[in-house]
Specification:
This protein is α+β, with helices and mostly antiparallel strands. The chain is built from 3 helices and 2 strands; from the N terminus they run H-H-E-H-E. The protein has a single domain, classed as Ubiquitin-activating enzyme E1, inactive adenylation domain, subdomain 1 (FAD/NAD(P)-binding domain, 3-Layer(bba) Sandwich). Helices cover about 40% and strands about 10% of the residues.
């Protein structure tokens, strides 16, 4: 199984262990899980942010499903 240090190895080489540890201690909230919010959540999660809370009161629909990460055709009507 891969260790956390191995997973973030390139980032640690770039900005050091202290900065990576700081990212892992951060908690953020993303309000709106549309095209931008979904992409932002994925990017921040991959960077090592410790906790990400997602808030969106909209439903997946034909008008927005093409921007949603994690939903597919047939998920229309589901809460984001």
């Amino acid at each position: 199984m891969i260790k956390q240090e191995q997973y973030f190895n390139r980032q640690i080489q770039l900005w050091g262990e202290g900065t990576q540890a700081s990212l892992q201690s951060k908690k953020i909230a993303i309000i709106g899980c549309g095209g931008l919010g979904c992409s932002l959540g994925v990017a921040l999660g991959a960077s090592g942010i410790g906790q990400i809370d997602l808030v969106d009161f909209d439903e997946v629909g034909v008008h927005n499903i093409h921007r949603q990460i994690g939903f597919k055709v047939g998920d229309e009507g589901r809460q984001k």
